[in-house]
Amino acid sequence: MFIHSRNMTRKKRSFSRLYAIARAKGIDLEEHKEVLVSQFTGGRTTSLRDMTPTEYEEMCECLQTGKPVGESTTEYRERLRRARSAVLNRMQRLGVDTADRTFAAVNRFCMDSRIIGKPFGLLSLEELQALIPKLEAILRKPRTVKSRRIIEIPIFFRPGQLPS
After folding, report:
1. How far apart are CA 150 and CA 156, in angstroms?
2. 89 located within any domain
3. What does the pLDDT read at residue 37?
4. Distance in angstroms (rounded) separating the CA atoms of residues 93 and 135
5. Are 84 and 42 in contact (CB under 8 A)?
6. Inter-CA distances, 89 with 85, 95, 98, 124, Å
7. Among 36, 91, 97, 131, which lies 20 to 30 A Cα-Cα from 120?
8. 54: closest CA among 137, 124, 151, 42?
9. What is the pLDDT of residues 55-91, one digit of tens each?
10. Domain presence at residue 146
11. How many domains does the chain have?
């Protein structure tokens, strides 16, 4: 009689998504992996192998998007949509072409190191929220218009010679 143990029936899982996200975000998993796993399993374990697929997916989603733990993806996307809309509205008031579907003007504006230094689509919720007051400050500043230099020539009238 052959008895299947729990370990023999368990499918081998790949954790490549986690490592790819960590590499892209500059997270040192050797140092932080156990704390992350513990946080997403509610302290149940510190081992990736002992995480449920749901816990693992939520951890990857949170690391990839910046979504807070416990917040639904729908709620997070709505907050992100609102922050993007608020930023785009202010950019439009500054004269940036936000109607272009390629977002070329928006990205050029965002790429300026004085603004944020990265493309609009890569901005996290926190970065978008930090950008709003900065854009508001730019909007409050008086605009200096580069105009042609006007030379004023004084005109003198003799008494009694004014045109009638």
Report:
1. 19
2. yes
3. 92
4. 10
5. no
6. 6, 10, 8, 17
7. 36
8. 42
9. 999 899 888 887 887 788 889 889 999 999 999 999 9
10. no
11. 2
User: In terms of domains, do 81 and 121 share one?
Assistant: yes
CA separation for the pair 116, 119 (Å, rounded)? 8
56 and 109, same domain (yes or no)? no
Q: Which two tokens stand for residue 5?
A: 């143990």
Q: Which residue has the tokens 């709003």?
A: 132
Q: Are 51 and 37 in contact (CB under 8 A)?
A: yes
Q: Which range marks the domain in which residue 108 is found?
A: 73-138
Domain identity same for 114 and 130: yes
- Predicted confidence at residue 156, as pLDDT, reads 65
Q: From residue 18, how far is each of 14, 48, 63, 106 by CA, in Å? A: 9, 10, 8, 31
Q: Kindly report the CA angle at 141 between 88 and 128, in degrees rounded to 5?
A: 30
DSSP letter at 50 equals G
pLDDT digits (tens, 9 = 90+) for 4-53: 445 545 567 789 999 998 888 788 888 889 988 998 898 999 999 999 99
Q: Looking at the structure, do residues 109 and 133 belong to the same domain, yes or no?
A: yes
Does the pLDDT value for residue 113 go beyond 60? yes
Residue 108's pLDDT is 92
Torsion of the alpha carbons at 71, 76, 77 and 83, rounded to the nearest 10:
170
